[in-house]
Design goal:
With 341 residues, the chain is of the alpha+beta class. It is 31% helix and 22% strand. The chain folds into two domains: 198 residues, Fructose-1,6-Bisphosphatase, Chain A, domain 1; 129 residues, D-Maltodextrin-Binding Protein, domain 2, CATH 3.40.190.80. The strands form three sheets. It has an eight-stranded mixed β-sheet with strand order 4-3-5-6-7-8-9-10, with helices on both faces. A five-stranded mixed β-sheet has the order 12-11-13-15-14, sandwiched between helices. The longest helix has 21 residues. It starts with a helix and ends with a helix. Bound molecules: 1,6-di-O-phosphono-beta-D-fructofuranose. The site of 1,6-di-O-phosphono-beta-D-fructofuranose has 14 residues, from strand 5 and helix 6.
Length: 341
């Protein structure tokens, strides 16, 4: 990093400027999306500062409540959820919110209502919160189907209908990765300016990777194709080198690495969790949207992940996402398994 050049770099591409440029390509646009995004960015900045000072501010540890998944909530979970719900409602651009932390969908009161539905995981990677490992916020944005009274149908849409998706990773630096349907761009928070600056323009995932990422602790319960694929990663029979295993246990961090370095991230189904662990609306869909926009792909073990049509807001699905060629390999193993059945 050439700090000298940086210090004199005055033509700053902030995320706000970037989104306004994108918006100017749509003359019909009223600017609602930019306003919505600016409130999501505000939430990310708040959570970033809270995560950074968590240890000092006694934000570490349990909040003493449990969420809809039956998980004990951490103080940071509750705080992050609060901030995003309030920021999204105050944007005046949303009608329904679905959060990993709330059992029911939140229907915004008519006086503050807009046309967008936002699905989000305010703080993903909860098992890593207290040990300072990278965690993140994941979000996806839909437009309500039409101008009737908003219902759950407006969020239980296939992932294909998603207009935009992104995540914000709270790690050694705070990085927001966003797609509005025309490519993927990464922005890093410059704490001295309090601005997200474009640092990773037009992210393209390598076609094939050298890394596989999965919780091997579940291996004994895996289905045939997953077990065969991981075996191939470790003991390739085609003379190629074995892949390296990297698993942080925070989806945002594992997907961010996969997007930049290539390879495959998996949370397959197993005998304990027949539908896998990760939630369709606010984990699987946003990450699959980004992966496809970056030239990769995302598969459930049965179909293209974005073709899924969820029936419940906290529905789970197995997921295999990453470099195009790597996901092709696991698709071939599931297809072979299906042929045998
Ligand atoms: P939370 O949303 O409850 O944090 O769960 C999601 C998650 O932490 C993902 O970030 C991660 O990929 C996965 O669970 C790790 O699960 P496991 O500990 O079973 O490997």
């Amino acid at each position: 990093m050439d700090h000298e050049a940086d210090a004199h770099r005055t033509d700053l591409m902030t995320i706000t400027r970037f989104v306004l440029n994108e918006q100017s390509k749509h003359p019909e646009s009223r600017g609602d999306f930019s306003i919505l995004l600016s409130h999501i960015v505000l939430g990310c900045k708040f959570v970033c500062s809270a995560v950074n000072k968590a240890g000092l501010a006694k934000l570490i540890g349990l909040a003493g409540e449990t969420n809809v998944q039956g998980e004990e909530q951490k103080k940071l979970d509750v705080l992050s959820n609060d901030v995003f719900v309030k920021a999204l409602i105050s944007s005046g651009r949303t009608c329904i919110l679905v959060s990993e932390e709330d059992e029911e969908a939140i229907f915004v009161e008519p006086s503050k209502r807009g046309r967008y539905c936002v699905v989000f995981d305010p703080l993903d990677g909860s098992s890593n919160i207290d040990c300072g490992v990278s965690i993140g916020t994941i979000f996806g944005i839909y437009m309500m189907k039409d101008s009737h009274e908003p219902t759950l149908d407006d969020v239980l849409q296939p992932g294909n209908n998603m207009l935009a998706a992104g995540y914000c990773m709270y790690g050694s630096s705070c990085t927001l990765v966003l797609s509005t349907g025309s490519g993927v761009n990464g922005f890093t928070l410059d704490p001295s300016l309090g601005e997200f600056i474009l640092t990773h323009p037009d992210i393209k995932i390598p076609k094939k990777g050298k890394i596989y990422s999965v919780n091997e602790g579940n291996a004994k319960n895996w289905d045939g194709p997953t077990a065969k694929y991981v075996e191939k990663c470790k003991f390739p029979k085609d003379g190629s080198s074995p892949k390296s295993l990297r698993y942080i246990g925070s989806m945002v961090a594992d997907v961010h690495r996969t997007l930049l370095y290539g390879g495959i991230f998996m949370y397959p189904r197993d005998k304990k969790s027949p539908n896998g662990k990760l939630r369709v609306l606010y984990e699987v869909f946003p990450m699959s949207f980004l992966m496809e926009q970056a030239g990769g792909q995302s598969f459930t073990g049965k179909q293209r992940a974005l073709d899924l049509v969820p029936k419940k807001i906290h529905e789970r699905s197995p997921i295999f996402l990453g470099s195009y060629d790597d996901v092709e390999e696991i698709k071939a193993l599931y297809a072979a398994e299906e042929k045998k059945e």
